[in-house]
Design brief:
heterodimer, A: 868 residues, six-stranded mixed beta sheet, 19 helices, 49 strands, elongated, B: 93 residues, mainly beta, four-stranded antiparallel beta sheet, two-stranded antiparallel ribbon, 1 helix, globular
């Protein structure tokens, strides 16, 4: 099917032997291989297929590239695309498209996103734009040697230069620092985002034609003259048989000539004298009228006639099915501007061109650099109703709208843009920007060059999110998942997992038929009454090694680590320079010059970073090396009254007698036949043994612990039981019970801070008056008067109920049900909290105030007798 | 995205690095001897020039080493990078 508007021959980009099946809103188009959706529509004689998003006015194809303001489609098949320019998308067999005004939408259901990958490429020269100037620049660069990449947003690059990687359908989306350019390749089956780093970037992006603001200029059938010529020469499509051409420049005249040569009857209007040497139109049968303008159009819905006005006030209506407009050419400088190139007004072209400033690795050539035909500065036809002279088609904004914005006192195009939304559409105002600036300047009585179009930003054209996501999709690839060596055993046991950073940690191990709350309660009581085992492999572990390791750790912790004997462990707190707690953990001395430092799961990377920063930037003379060993060691933490018996059943090579191996000691040896470090540290308040084994033995050890502990009542427990047990003991979690405004003293850990005068990070800040205020927020315990009331974490605490605003004196940081206490409890940060112990406060909940009693923050075994 | 010349690794993408604020602000030899004002000055007060600015960078996803750079804050161009033990080079904008 050739289509009513397809000429019998011609069309350099189409393959007449290869018809392609394309359905537009259910209707089969006369499409050929090489067509765009827009050229297939025009070939099929469909002129008014679109509606403007705001007013719903009939609209047709205006342009032949990404500057198109009207013709946007949703692609339903072969793969879904929410919104693309019909003028920029090549047809493929089986394609289904439908008009999509203004904004894309996601249909319901599971729509597979187009597959996409990312590719990195380093080149000496990247040329953006495959027109004559771009091809010449690429050929020259290739001849000089080095890798050259040429990209063009159109689906075809004519005469690709030798030795150059040419990528059609590839849009340079943004140019960033140091020659970094992100390009989006819209593939047939696979999209690709190219991350290009180029030593030199050549911008050969050409120029976009602009329209003229005259009454009725939005009617379907009014097109850009250059686009009309493109459809004729590349696609063999004659956009109209009775054409009126309104031109201010030679390229507009060339379009008239091309139309006439293709058999159309052509009337050319020259409202103002056209600079430069114009082709001989009369010889081609084109009627030329100087001084004539368009003052209106008619035809429902598409153009049928054009109303003209002559220089002596003559009026005439001529039948026409095409009104081709060339109001001059705007160099395509959006990409250059966004990376810092300035613009200057060019009188000859009546347009804004690069002024030569900008990065030294960027060069602008060809039409983009201002090599456009001279044009008379005609932006608006005076005659006619300003409310019918469209400036921006996609926002339905007219000269009258721009005048209204200026009338309200707006002078900058940036303000006019925000008042009218001109340039905020999917086409980024490519056809409207310079026109708007010219009209604002004229309304203010300013020179045409007083201000140019508003500032552009990347992306140059929209990129689908699916392309940006690339392969980083779905639960596995969006973000890495970290699992411990014991993970398969947890899965097999039916553990419910929670995300802790990138780690998957068992939240609880519910028995069949048991809900989560019941599981947590059972796990807590199991640890308190018999023994439990926790997979603590995610614990951050850093080995700090070297002759100066002890000196270094003394400077990083508030307490002394250099006095720690070999084989002993010490709980430590680390401050920021501002004196606030940033992390806590246990330091273990394995040898004179070797420490193992444990950190919170989430703080592991941060602590290593801090260590390295201080060592490298402040104390390079210290001979200390830090190594993250978090993933080298799997950890099973056995806790409870029967913990020692469980470890004994694993046949350790070390003496477990508490006199020989007391709380806060460490031994190296073998457990269950594998090398192990055994740490006697506790996060539950019960007698505890942390078994650290090389990661490859982790799963086997875990299974051995469960087997050996079964008859001693041992069961695995998860992170929620761990949280409850530690809170019952008043053990803090940095980041939950602290927020970066909390000192060790505020936490009741002031006793740890050494006072021997030696320096450590954050020490000087502790002397600040503000950190010694008696009314600072302090960590306290909290018991709701009603033992069944579970306070929400974050609940605000007040002294008395009343009409808001009521002054807040603190908030709940941790809140749980305690199985061993048989009631709820909480930890909270409260102003002058320690002075308030024994008094009452109110938790301000949405349902009303809840009375709570302020207590010591240790609820269970305050003497610590169970640790031994 | 800047192309940053790590003194040890050579030119690498900015995503591998982390910014570390103004360079050449040494930890005081005896913080305890400082007044509150002098301590606050060390802790919080930083220059904010338009033009060349010496600052610290960390090759976090590379060699994990700190280094210094002079960056023109007006053009966002890196004028030089150098090791922490080297003096600030003389570079103009």
């Amino acid at each position: 099917m050739s289509g009513p508007r397809r000429l019998p021959d011609g069309g350099t980009w189409i393959d007449r032997a290869r018809p392609v099946s394309v359905r537009f809103a259910g209707r089969e188009l006369a499409a050929l291989a090489g067509d765009t959706v827009a050229s297939a529509l025009l070939a099929s004689g469909i002129r008014d297929a679109f509606r403007s998003p705001i007013l719903g006015r009939p609209r047709g194809v205006v342009a032949a590239g990404v500057e198109e303001p009207n013709a946007y489609v949703e692609v339903g098949a072969p793969s879904f695309e929410a919104i693309v320019a019909a003028t920029a998308v090549p047809v493929v067999d089986g394609m289904e498209v439908s008009p999509r005004p203004g904004m894309g939408r996601l249909p319901g259901g599971d729509v597979p996103a187009r597959p996409a990958v990312h590719t990195h490429r380093h080149v000496e020269t990247l040329v953006i734009g495959g027109g004559p100037a771009g091809r010449a620049a690429a050929a020259e660069a290739a001849a000089a040697g080095g890798r050259v990449l040429l990209v063009d947003e159109r689906h075809r690059i004519d005469d690709p230069p030798e030795g150059v990687l040419c990528l059609p359908s590839t849009t340079a989306s943004g140019i960033y620092d140091d020659g970094y350019v992100v390009c989006y390749e819209r593939g047939v089956e696979l999209d690709r985002v190219w991350h290009v780093r180029a030593r030199r970037v050549v911008l050969a992006t050409g120029a976009h034609e602009r329209t003229v603001a005259f009454a009725g200029n939005d009617r379907p059938g009014v097109m850009l003259a250059g686009a009309v010529r493109t459809y004729l020469e590349r696609y063999g499509v004659l956009c109209g048989e009775r054409a009126v051409v309104l031109s201010t420049n030679v390229w507009g005249h060339e379009a008239a000539l091309a139309l006439a040569s293709a058999g159309a009857s052509v009337l050319l209007l020259e409202p103002v004298p056209v600079p430069g040497e114009v082709p001989d139109l009369a010889a081609a049968g084109v009627e030329v009228r100087s001084g004539w303008v368009v003052v209106g159009t008619e035809g429902e819905p598409a153009l049928a006639a054009v109303h003209l006005a002559g220089p002596a006030g003559e009026r005439e209506t001529v039948p026409a099915d095409l009104l081709a407009v060339s109001g001059g050419w705007n160099p395509t400088v959006q990409l250059a501007r966004a990376i810092g190139c300035g613009l200057r007004y060019d009188e000859a072209g009546a347009c804004f061109v690069p002024d030569g400033t900008g990065p030294d690795w960027l060069e602008v050539v060809g039409a983009a650099a201002g090599e456009v035909p001279p044009s008379a500065p005609l932006f608006r036809i005076e005659a006619g109703d300003d409310a019918e002279k469209y400036v921006e088609l996609q926002r339905d904004q007219t000269v009258a709208d721009v005048a209204a914005a200026v009338g309200r006192g707006l002078r900058s195009v940036e303000h006019v843009k925000r008042a009218t939304y001109i340039g905020t559409t999917i086409d980024q105002g490519r056809t409207s920007g310079t026109l708007t600036a010219a009209i604002v300047n004229a309304l203010l009585g300013w020179d045409p060059g007083a201000q140019g179009p508003s500032n552009p930003r990347p992306p140059y054209t929209p990129i689908p999110y699916a392309a940006l996501a690339g392969l980083d999709r779905g639960p596995r690839l969006l973000d890495p998942i970290r699992t411990t060596p014991m993970h398969p055993a947890h899965v097999a046991r039916g553990a419910v997992f929670e995300d802790v950073g990138q780690w998957k940690r068992p939240y609880a191990f519910p028995h069949p038929g048991e809900d989560l709350e019941a599981a947590v309660t059972r796990e807590c009581l199991t640890v308190r009454r018999a023994a439990g085992v926790l997979d603590a492999s995610t614990l951050g572990k850093i080995e700090v090694v070297g002759p100066d390791a002890a000196v270094f750790l003394d400077r990083m912790y508030v307490n002394r680590m250099s006095t720690l004997p070999i084989g002993r462990a010490r709980y430590g707190v680390m401050l920021g320079l501002d004196g606030m707690v940033v992390d806590d953990g246990v330091a273990v001395r394995l040898a004179e010059d070797r420490f193992l430092v444990t950190t919170t799961t989430s703080g592991a990377a941060m602590v290593l970073d801090r260590f390295e920063e201080w060592l490298q930037t402040e104390w390079p003379e210290l001979r200390v090396w830090c190594t993250s060993v978090t993933e080298r060691w799997a950890v099973a933490a056995i806790s409870g009254p029967n913990a020692r018996e469980v470890v004994a059943a694993l046949e350790p090579s070390v003496d477990l007698d508490p006199a020989a191996f007391p709380h806060m000691a460490v031994r190296e040896g073998e457990v269950a036949g594998v090398p192990a470090r055994i740490l006697r540290v506790s996060f539950t308040g019960e007698r505890s043994y942390e078994l650290h084994v090389p990661a490859r033995y982790g799963l086997g050890l875990w299974e051995e612990v469960l087997r050996a502990g079964a008859e001693l009542g041992l069961e695995p427990y998860g992170t929620e039981a761990m949280h409850v047990l530690r809170a019952e003991k008043g053990y803090i979690i940095v980041g939950q019970d602290t927020d970066g405004t909390v000192t060790a003293e505020d936490l009741g850990l002031g006793w740890m801070v050494r006072t021997d005068g030696s320096d450590f990070v954050g020490r000087r800040s502790l002397a600040r008056a503000d950190l010694r205020r008696p009314d600072r927020r302090q960590l306290v315990g909290m018991l709701p008067e009603d033992p069944e009331t579970l306070l929400p974490e974050g609940a605000q605490l007040v002294e008395e109920a009343g009409e808001p605003p009521v002054r807040m004196v603190g908030w709940v940081t941790s809140s749980y049900r305690s199985p061993v206490l048989g009631r709820t409890f909480a930890l909270a940060l409260v102003e002058a909290g320690r002075r308030r112990i024994g008094t009452s406060l109110l938790a301000a909940l949405a349902a009303g105030p809840v009375p709570v009693r302020v207590t010591e923050p240790v609820f269970y075994d305050p003497e610590g007798s169970r640790l031994r | 995205m800047l192309l940053i010349h790590c003194p040890w690794c050579g030119p690498r993408d900015e995503v591998e690095f982390r910014y570390g604020g103004q360079a050449h602000i040494a930890y005081p030899g005896d913080p305890g001897a400082l007044s509150d004002e002098a301590w606050a000055d060390y802790l919080f007060m930083r220059d904010n020039p338009k033009g060349p600015f010496a600052e610290r960078w960390f090759h976090a996803a590379g060699c994990r080493r700190w280094f210094n750079a002079v960056r023109d804050t007006a053009t966002h161009r890196l004028l030089a990078t150098y090791r922490p033990d080297e003096p600030r080079p003389e570079v103009g904008p």
